[in-house]
Amino acid sequence: MDLDALRFADFSKLATAVSDWSAMVTKLRTLAEDAHGDLGGKAAKANWAGVNATVTREFIGKTAKEFGDAATEADSIRNILSDTHGELVGYKAELNTAIEQALARNLTVVSTGNGGFTVTMNIHPDRAAKGHPVPEHTEADAISLRDQVQGILQRATESDTTAAQALTMLVRQNPYGFSDASYYNRDVAAAAIKDAERIANLLKTKGDDLTPEEFDQLNKDLAAHKDDRLFQEEFATTLGPRGLLDFWADLSDPSDGGTLQRARLDQLGDFQKNLSFTLAGATQSDSPAMRSWEDEMVRLGDQTVQTRGTRVYGFQLMSNLMRNGDWDNRFLNDYGNALVATEKKMKMPDHYWNGGVPPMPKMNFTGEDFGRDPMTGFMTGLANSPDAATEFFNTTQPTDNAQYVLKDRPVFDDTPLNSHDGNSSREATGNALVAAATGQNPLDPNAPQVDLSPDHRKVLDRSLNYLSQAGNDFPPEMRDDMAKVLSRHSDVVHHSASAMSDDPNDPRLVNRKDLLEVSKQISRDQTSYGMLNEAMNTEIIKDIYADHPKDPNETLQDGGRTIGFLEEARYQALKTDKEDPSWNAKWLYHGFGAAANFIPVVGDVAQRGVDALAYQWQLDEQARIDAGIQDQNRETFLHRENQLKSLSEEWAKANPGNTYTPRTLEQEINSAALTGNDRAKGLAGAK
After folding, report:
1. What does the buried/exposed string (b/e) look like for 437-453 if buried means 16 or more CB atoms within 10 Å of the residue's CB?
2. Using CA atoms, how far apart are residues 64 and 43, in angstroms rounded to an integer?
3. CA pair distance 671, 665, nearest whole angstrom
4. Residues 6+ apart with CB under 8 A from 333
5. Residues 229-277: tens digit of each pLDDT
6. Which of 22, 107, 475, 653 has the smallest count of CB within 10 Å of its CB?
């Protein structure tokens, strides 16, 4: 900012803008409150059906959020403008005061054009009026005034330019919407941008030559800014995609003689998480700079990065930095599609991911896996972004992603130091599948249930198809994941398990052969088996209390047939594992809290019925084990007699005035269970 621009500036228009934005903030906050409380509240309580259950409800939810983001962005703009206005008015006053005070020493400041100025005498002694002595000054006085004015102009320039930079970045983050970035003054926004540039340049220039002290401060800075949108974007774009990959390769490779990895090995995991949160936040920006960053990172995925000791692929490096945070859905799917395409071209991807002479020891410092398999980190990122996961698992072009990751993909051991663990990439893929089929993040114990959409149902159908084809080679790592998926879709699972026959005109039915095979594989693991049965117990009771068919007897019979279906699945599992029935040694019922978020919620009355039914089911399971029963009584359901009796009693409570006696109710429920069992046997025999 030049001398005259500040000295004679009229900031009234800026003050008016601040006032206008303040009024806008008030209006938008009111609209946001109405959108969330009134519009959003009514949408949440409404009984939606058909297209409205997905398209309209989703539109209302997004619209309500947009009002909130608009209010947040307007507040940030108002705060930055207000802070800048106050600073510039202050600098103008400071400048004019300095010039006025300098007159007492016969000094003044004159603009030289092009932003420059000079300090000169106000009145030359030779031109002073007779009898009016001119104040004296020294050269030091002139230099001091020059430096004072220069400092004021520099601070004013910084205030003006950093405000413009922050406002521009803020608006560009979402060209077609509003940013949720929040800043309460210009200084905070400007400091965030400066910090990002400093840290990114430090990583560029020093890599793993950072001192332990520099690393510690860097880790703190990243943690402090993990929710700062301007910081995140500026950091990512300043470092650049290639700069990021080079840095992580350099840090991971211990063969270059650097001491940082040894000195801070225990802190590398935290640093990896903080870096992941930062990069994930950056991808939420839709600015042209970040779109370019994302496209370039995808392009670099199949390129190799050479270090002193080995070489690795971009996918391997980047995937390890995707394990935390909420990543942009478009980027995740572009990245995932490219990763799948690359692996299919490789044909035996494990040979490539374990390549390098020698292979990179580790690229992941947050768990047991070495981070050589890029699918592990990518799938973990998908699990944290359920909407992206749903899109990925439903993508069929150019590759059927679900078929590839659930059925065709060859896996390899990325945790060679632990021979008793599961496969890391399959564990991560299972988590991503749960997110895709339920809309919930399985890695977040507090994630709320969301309304199931046709896309979630599509993931369910496709996953049942591909995983059932594995038969007894079903990945053990995914048993608990499919138990969660079936638990969340308990309505269609109960409806399908209790069905008497296939009906192509019934959209609620899933493929019953696939369902039986997957239920069998789930039943080979005690905890997964418990999850599935607890969810079905809940769904059966919910059905009895909430559904109102013309003939209430339907809900009783449906419950019995589902129990018969589940019993056959368990029996098939026992036959498969008869040489190793290890989990039968003790019934370790513990509430199956891992599935709690995925089990349907029922009212208080129904919940009491659920608790009673679950208790009786536990007694049956323990009796089965105590008796050493590994075969099925084909006459009656002795293994489930307490559960069936409890179910008939609960049905009687929900249907007062029915004509059944307790004995005939038990007969009815047992007959239904045997029917469900027979239907399931037929499905198993036909598979």
Report:
1. bbbbbbbeeebeeeebb
2. 10
3. 10
4. 388, 391, 392, 395
5. 889 999 999 999 999 999 999 999 988 766 888 889 999 999 999 999 9
6. 653
Cis-peptide into 552, omega within 30 deg: no
Please state whether beta strands 107-113 and 311-313 pair in parallel, antiparallel, or not at all (unpaired).
unpaired
**CA–centroid distance for 539 within its chain:** 28
Tell me which DSSP letter residue 420 carries: T
Question: What gap in Å lies between CA 162 and CA 156, rounded to an integer?
Answer: 10
**What is the three-state SS of 428-461?**
HHHHHHHHHHHCCCCCCCCCCCCCCCHHHHHHHH
In the chain, what's the furthest Cα-to-Cα distance?
Answer: 131
Q: Which of 492, 466, 489, 476 is nearest to 529 (CA)?
A: 476
Would you state the structure tokens that stand for residue 411, as one six-digit string?
A: 């896996």
In degrees, rounded to 5, the angle at the alpha carbon of residue 123 between the alpha carbons of residues 119 and 128 is 165
Closest listed residue to residue 621, CA positions, set 499, 532, 545, 502: 532
Here the tokens at position 625 are 């084990």
Instruction: Please answer whether residues 462 and 394 qualify as being in contact, where contact means their C-beta atoms are separated by less than 8 angstroms.
Output: yes
**CA separation, residue 57 to residues 28, 30, 40, 164, 176 (Å):** 22, 21, 9, 38, 21
The upper half-sphere exposure of residue 166, i.e. CA atoms within 13 Å in the direction of its Cβ, equals: 32
Separation CA 236–CA 293 (nearest Å): 8
Contacting residues for 374 by C-beta, under 8 A, at least 6 apart:
313, 315, 316, 318, 319, 320, 339, 353
Using alpha carbons, list the distances in angstroms from residue 268 to 199, 273, 321, 605: 17, 9, 12, 50
Of 172, 182, 226, 225, the closest CA to residue 68 belongs to: 182
Cα 364 to Cα 316: distance, rounded to the nearest angstrom: 10
pTM confidence score: 0.78
CB 279 within 8 A of CB 232: yes
Answer positive or negative: Cα dihedral of 651, 657, 662, 663.
Answer: negative
Identify the residue whose tokens are 């919620």.
Answer: 601
Length of the chain: 687
Determine the residue type at 501. Answer: S
pLDDT of residue 186: 61
- Burial class of residue 397, CB neighbours in 10 A (0-12, 13-18, 19+): exposed
Q: How far apart are CA 473 and CA 662, in angstroms?
A: 44
Q: Report the range of poorest mean pLDDT among 201-205, 255-259, 378-382.
A: 255-259
Find the Cα–Cα–Cα–Cα dihedral 291, 294, 297, 299, rounded to 10°: -60
Nearest to 318 by CA among 244, 225, 425: 244
Q: If you compute the radius of gyration of the chain from its CA atoms, what whole number of angstroms results?
A: 34
Query: What residue type is 669 in one-letter code?
Result: I
Cα angle 536, 541, 545 (rounded to 5 degrees) comes to 145
Return d(Cα 594, Cα 611) in angstroms, integer.
Answer: 17
Residue 107 — φ and ψ, nearest 5°?
-120, 150
CA dihedral 247, 251, 254, 256 (to 10 degrees): 40
Contact between 633 and 644 (Cβ < 8 Å): no
State pLDDT tens for residues 7-48. Answer: 888 888 888 887 877 787 777 777 767 766 665 555 554 554
Q: Return the HEC string of 161-209.
A: HHHHHHHHHHHHCCCCCCCCCCCCCHHHHHHHHHHHHHHHHHHHHHHHH
* Rounded CA separation 14/163 (Å): 13
Long-range contacts of 99-103 (CB under 8 A, 24+ apart): 99/7, 99/149, 102/145
Distance of alpha carbon 114 from alpha carbon 628, whole angstroms: 95
pLDDT of residue 72: 72
Q: How many CB atoms lie within 10 A of CB 657?
A: 6
